[in-house]
Amino acid sequence: MLKSFKNIIISTCLIGSMFNSAWAKNASFDFSVTPIADNVYSIVSPSFGLPTPENKGWNSNSHFVVTEKGVLLFDTGSSEIIGNEIKKAIKTVTEKPVRWVVNSHSHADHWLGNAGFIDAGAEIIASGRAVRVMKEDGQGPVDAFSRMTKGATGTTHVKYPTLLLSQGEKRNLGGLDVEFIFSNDAHSPGDILMWLPKQKIIFGGDVLSSQWMPILTYHGNVPHLIDTLYEVVKLNPEIVLTGHGKATSGKSIKRDADLVAGVWKLVKEGHDDNKNSDEIMLDVSDDLGPTYRPLYKNFDSEIKRYVELLYKSH
Questions:
Q1: SS3 of 82, please?
Q2: Structure pTM?
Q3: Would the N or C end of the chain have less CB density within 10 A of its end CB?
Q4: CB 65 within 8 A of CB 72
Q5: 252 to 5, 213, 237, 255: CA distances (angstroms)
């Protein structure tokens, strides 16, 4: 199995370990649309865990904007079935076709639904680095998700992005001004965020978080994550749309930046003082716990993993 695909499966498992209890007994496969702002909508998954038979692989959010000339969609889910369900949900709002699809990154739960939008001739957009990882992984994620859901994800045709973005690229899509921000591999190789400057709305994929702690991965870059979060804070977004969880505001991004920077600093200082990870964990819990524990649903379960991950990186 390719190294990049292993990293994606590890990252998916990390999300599962963080959120596995969040899928309630009465959760449903309901692709309802939530209005966010004028012509901006979200389709929020109620599941925060691994792809399972119960959630049918639907464990990430998608967002879309209705423009003068068609729909701009951000992330397509983890199977062709899910992509088609997203397409149906969009049609409850508008009959305009999906003309542009943005894949935030290469983790399979955010782009394997691309095939659902090819028949309408949608232009699929991503960074070159993310596409390279997608192609390296090939059919692997499709087969893995099928096994994990006991076949609920069905048959998925892998459709890669065809338009590759450059750093800081700006485009006008159907009369909508859009800016793309590269995170410099903050969460995974080739992450991009999408910024609507007039509306002051940012679409963050898994780089941005809401009620859960930021998702650190083994193939992400934590210093670049910290830098990216602070750059997003400077934009002063009014609405933040994330890859998992509810819509939030710029205050959450400042909270996340300060948290990750604080853990990074304490781990570095502890490592330099020859402390082991358990000792550093006590320092982190004592110093940061009183402030951040009430702000996240998963502080106690996730902070230990943070320390262990960052300790190994020093």
A1: helix
A2: 0.92
A3: N
A4: yes
A5: 30, 10, 10, 5
Report which DSSP code applies to 169. Answer: -
CA dist 246 → 218, 236, 255, 275 (Å): 25, 18, 16, 37
**pLDDT tens column, 63-102:** 999 999 999 999 999 999 999 999 999 999 999 999 999 9
CA-only gyration radius of the chain, Å: 19
**125 bridge partner residues:** 102, 163
Structure tokens at 273: 């003082």
Region class of 276: left (phi > 0), else alpha (psi between -120 and 50), else beta: beta
CB 134 within 8 A of CB 160: yes
Cα separation, 130 vs 110, whole angstroms = 12
- Give the confidence band of 1 by pLDDT, cuts at 50, 70, 90: very low
Contact 267, 183 (CB under 8 A): no
